[in-house]
Amino acid sequence: MKGHIRYCPSDNLYTLSETCSLCGKSTITPHPARYSPEDKYGHYRRMIR
């Protein structure tokens, strides 16, 4: 673990661990993906929205 903040969507809890301390589910990163002008799949990702 690198110490990056993580988020549990079911409990709305921010934590540093890979699993939530309340429900035990895995956490996700709350940060969006980095922008790259050479993004090959950006067109498809925008079509989904």
The 3D shape can be described as: elongated
The counted number of beta strands is 2
Helix/strand order: EEH
Please outline the major beta sheet.
2 strands, antiparallel
Cα-to-Cα separation, first versus last residue: 32 Å
Mean pLDDT: 87
SSE-based structural type = alpha+beta
Helical content stands at 10-25%
- Strand content range: 5-15%
Strand order of the largest sheet: 1-2
Individual helix count: 1
Write down the Rg: 14 Å
Unreliable spans are none
Describe the overall structure.
It is a single chain. By secondary structure, the protein is of the alpha+beta class. It has one helix spanning 42-48, and strands at 6-8, 13-15. The protein has one helix and two strands. It is elongated. It starts with 5 loop residues before the first strand and ends with a helix.
